[in-house]
Amino acid sequence: MTSNPLQSCSPIQVEEVPGLVSVVIPAHNHGLFLPETLDSVLAQTYPDIEVILIDDDSSDNTPQIAEQYTQKFRPSCFHYVRLSHVGAAGARNEGLLRSRGEFLQYLDADDLLDPHKLSLQVQFFREHQNVDISVGQVCYFVNPEKLSDPIELPAREYTLESFVCEGHFITMAPLSRRTSLFRIGLWNTSLRYGDESEYFGRAVALGVKVVDQPDAICHYRIHMKNGRRVIGLENMIRTVAMSYDRILQTGRENGVEISPAMEMKMLEFRWLVHVFDCERKEAIRDLQRLIFFKQPCTGQNSEVETKLRTITLQFRLLSLTILGVGVWLRLWKLFHALFGSRIDVLPESVRKEIREVMFDRYGRLV
């Protein structure tokens, strides 16, 4: 197994407090939302909590908010640390190293915890001593309206394949045993987006026991400063591809068999990175594998399989119109190079729809 500087970090020499939950909140210019976030921590039915607020050089009223809330929490249970441009991942690392709790909750400065989240998860840990990370359910909202309500979900234990292929969970969903987090290591500060996917995916790849707990609820706020909107779609795709690549590499290094489904998930992002970089041959290679070999060919349902592949291609091409003219032209050239004489695989209706979308958006380009 190769060594990884992100793995196996050691805590600052502090004495762990049994039963204490450390809530680590990175903040950068989120003063508009931060009081509501802190109020959601104060409203917890679980009493034994410390807050570690890591201010990443905010230029708004975050320091004043921190001063106000120092008085609202129990003595020595609210810690304010100001750093200079370390990013969200760097701030979480600082909070992890300073934490004293038996359990640790990451919480972004614009999101909320349901009042019973921590009490339910701590109780779950007491009843399941072999579980390292309990993952709650995320509901989405645009202030002040809710977008989603909790639903009935089955509890499950994550494997690397289920984590990679069925989506990741958002930063504040898990509650973790602090000792388990030091097995995982530090957050990857080179990732501007998708760092939580890499972090918790690394946990699963390392054999940390991660289990769903759907009755523990948290709330993700949708607004114009969410990471995806700030960094742009192309950067998002690049960082997600890098994240998946590192998760699978960690799995390989730790003896996890990488299934075809996991490889295909990686290809969904990697072929687009090749398009961005004008790497035509590499993009064609990955897209061929993704479209024509994603569904195993049985020879019995070829019409259905062709339709599935057609729908897959149609979705991928049409959903990428937001990428801009230059990328679209590269995709179109790649499309023709990929299919060549096999263009008849696609029905005329699909080809017509692709041309109409391009015409409507950009004028006649093809």
Q: What percentage of amino acids are in beta strands? A: 15-25%
CATH architecture of the largest domain: Alpha-Beta Complex
Q: Percentage of helical residues?
A: 40-55%
CATH superfamily (homologous) name of the largest domain: Spore Coat Polysaccharide Biosynthesis Protein SpsA, Chain A
Would you identify the regions where 5 or more consecutive residues have pLDDT less than 50?
A: 1-5, 294-301, 340-346, 357-366
Distance between the termini: 50 Å
Please, could you describe this protein's structure?
36% of the residues are buried. It is built from 14 helices and 9 strands. The protein folds into 2 domains: 18-228, Spore Coat Polysaccharide Biosynthesis Protein SpsA, Chain A (Alpha-Beta Complex), CATH 3.90.550.10; 291-362, no CATH class. Strands 1, 2, 3, 4, 5, 6, 7, 8 and 9 form a 9-stranded mixed β-sheet that branches. The longest helix has 21 residues, at 233-253. Helices cover 46% and strands 17% of the residues. It has helices spanning 34-42, 62-70, 87-98, 117-127, 160-165, 178-184, 195-205, 227-231, 233-253, 260-276, 280-292, 302-318, 325-339, 348-362; strands spanning 17-27, 49-56, 78-83, 101-106, 112-113, 133-142, 145-146, 174-177, 210-221. The protein has 366 residues and is α/β, with parallel strands linked by helices.
